[in-house]
Amino acid sequence: MNPIRLAVFASGNGTNFTALVNYAKKQLPNVEIVRLIVDHKYAFVVQRAKKLEIPSTYIDYRKFKDKAAAETEIIGRLKEDQVSGILLAGFMRIIGPDLLLAFPNRIINIHPALLPSFPGRHGIEDAFEYGVKVTGVTIHYVDNGVDSGEIIAQAPVRIKESDNLESLEKRIHRLEHRLYPQTLRQLIKKGVFTV
Ligand code: GAR
């Protein structure tokens, strides 16, 4: 059987990208992460992709007349790569209608808080500042909102008296690196990416 070909979209460091690629290589013989899409030329995730020998494509959104035009370019690239699903891993843009339509219910995101609480770019910090006692990680389908699609999986992280933002971030990220690959495994099993 041909492997399921996936792309990862990221904007920054890329620890989730690395976790997904390593897990797929070792544990998911029927899955191949074939491309990284980045919207920042110098994002560290690009170095990670090089090391893992995964081709990356930088999309400079400012060069296109609008988001739809940038996404047309992305869709073309991913169709050529025969990609059947997209994993957002710290990709800090709202996905437009064309891309959503091209991959219906096949775009997944990870968020570092228990949605619907604390959506947006600063989920960990917002939960910490608010003073909640439990936060966590959410994996969800992507729709046209900000971290608003149907929830697939969640796992909690308790905030201790002794925590500071840094120690909380560490635990959240450690959990992300387990939960995203495990959820990917479940989605593959469910046939979500089978075209
Ligand atoms: C992760 O914590 C991810 O949950 C978050 O960006 C970080 C990327 O880290 N995403 C969001 O906040 C989405 N709203 P990474 O680049 O090391 O994988």
Automatic annotation (TrEMBL):
N(1)-(5-phospho-beta-D-ribosyl)glycinamide binds at residues 14-16. It catalyses: N(1)-(5-phospho-beta-D-ribosyl)glycinamide + (6R)-10-formyltetrahydrofolate = N(2)-formyl-N(1)-(5-phospho-beta-D-ribosyl)glycinamide + (6S)-5,6,7,8-tetrahydrofolate + H(+). It holds the Pfam family Formyl_trans_N. Keywords: Purine biosynthesis, Transferase. Its EC number is 2.1.2.2. The active site is at 111 (proton donor). Pathway: Purine metabolism; IMP biosynthesis via de novo pathway; N(2)-formyl-N(1)-(5-phospho-D-ribosyl)glycinamide from N(1)-(5-phospho-D-ribosyl)glycinamide (10-formyl THF route): step 1/1. It is an enzyme of class 2 (transferase). InterPro entries: Formyl_transf_N, Formyl_transf_N_sf, GART. SUPFAM superfamilies: Formyltransferase. Residues 5-184 form the Formyl transferase N-terminal domain. One of its GO terms (biological process) is 'de novo' IMP biosynthetic process. The record marks 147 as: Raises pKa of active site His. The keyword Transferase applies. It comes from the Bacteria. One of its GO terms (molecular function) is phosphoribosylglycinamide formyltransferase activity. Belongs to the GART family. This is Phosphoribosylglycinamide formyltransferase. It comes from Oenococcus oeni.
